[in-house]
Amino acid sequence: MSTFGSLNAATTALWAQRRALDVTGQNISNVNTEGYSRQRVDLQAMGGSVVPAFFSTSSGIGNGVSADDVTRIRDAFLEGRGHTEHANSARLTVENDTYTLVEQAFREPGDTGIQNLLSDMWSGWEDVANQPQDQAARGQVLKRLETLVGGIHFSQASLGAQWTQSRESLDVLVSDVNAAATNIADLNKAILRANQSGTPANDLSDQRDLLVMKLADQVGATVRHGDNGVVDVLVGGMTLVAGSTAGSLATAGTTSVDGVTADPPRIVTGTGGYAVRVGGTAEGQLNSLNTIIPSYRDAMDATAVSLATALNAAHGNGYDLNGVSGGPLLGSASGPITAASLTVLITDPKKIAASSVAGPSAGVGSLDHGNADAIAQLRQQTTGPTATDANYRKMITELGVQSAVAGRNLDIQSVISTQVDSARESVAGVNMDEEMTNMLSYQHAYSAAGRLVTAIDEMLDKLINGTGRVGL
């Protein structure tokens, strides 16, 4: 290597260490930037020529250092694991929130809960049995029955409102997914062009991977790596983004909670309408729309039918103050009896059939209390379709168990997700201690390279200016 060759080696050292310092500064600047992956300069020795040629020799020492490549530190396996665990966490979060809102709709335990309203209604029949001649006792049992029906209406309406809100949220989520897919396709195009031209695209890749993680949360997206840094995004095995081309998703199915059985909500491809097996938040919302909320609405309908059947049958066995057989207490405002259509049919306290025997004469009722007492004892039934209290308590107990299981599963998944995120962060995250160490190392290397330039400059100065000329 010539003297000027040594100067070139020192120059490459200055440039390489400065580039390494620049990258270190970029890492430090983005220590708190979401989705940023730390970068590292790949320093490679520039060797001498190994190809023999006429009048060409090489000392083999080398020509300096190259710092052309800046590597983005990322673990593809951990990123894939992160997509899976984030999707699971998002799904469980939605399901846990759904169970919490369902519990709030029933307000159990509490003074306004249906169980307490049922208890008040049965106690009202006991008051009628104790004082069958008291018009106030008969009137209050009707009011308590109306309050119970109102509580059933409120719970069913709350579940319906929760379903409608979830359905609207699903539409918003799909729109957001389509926008993110378009952005990922645009970033893929930019990354491809940058890599083909030899320009670093690490920051663009960070932006894209942040969007991919968002899609993993929303619909359980996964990635398939291609050439030149491009990735394809898959949802349920179907390609949502292929290189620079983005597909789309859409929602299908009923927008009314009453149509879930016939036309359940689902997510389909924007083109062709093929069903897509989604994960993440979307899966949790679909589970809520198609399974969780409808199952409890059905349970409320069953409670309304059970209550109406039991009361009407028992009330028909008695006689009112006019000596007339008791008519139906509960019916439907329209159509078959449901939790939403349940209504109280009797408004006149005299028509309460509290007696178990007919009156002494036509138009005159008995003050017997046998039927009122029999109705009050309906709360003691433990089996059968008319065991309203027992069946309702069973349903609430199952709700509590399912809610507790959902909460426990979410807690377990949160621990797993946190561990995976910590592993990802340990690889891709910026460690300030490590960056400070690198900064000092590159600083000293830069100073040493500068001192090498000074030494070579002094040598050349001595050679050129301190050596006498030979006379001719």
The 3D shape can be described as rod-shaped
Structural class, judged by helices and strands?
A: alpha+beta
* Contiguous uncertain segments of 5+ residues: none
User: Percent of residues in helical segments?
Assistant: 55-70%
- Beta percentage is 5-15%
Numbering strands along the chain, what is their spatial order in the largest sheet? Answer: 3-4-5-6
Alpha plus pi helix count:
9
Output mean pLDDT. 88
Rg is: 39 Å
Number of strands: 10
What string gives the helices and strands in order? HEEHHHHEEEEEEHEEHHH
Q: Outline the biggest β-sheet.
A: 4 strands, antiparallel
**What distance lies between the first and last C-alpha atoms, to the nearest angstrom?**
31 Å
Give the count of structural domains.
2
Keywords:
two-stranded antiparallel sheet, rod-shaped, single chain, 9 helices, 2 domains, 472 residues, four-stranded antiparallel sheet, alpha+beta
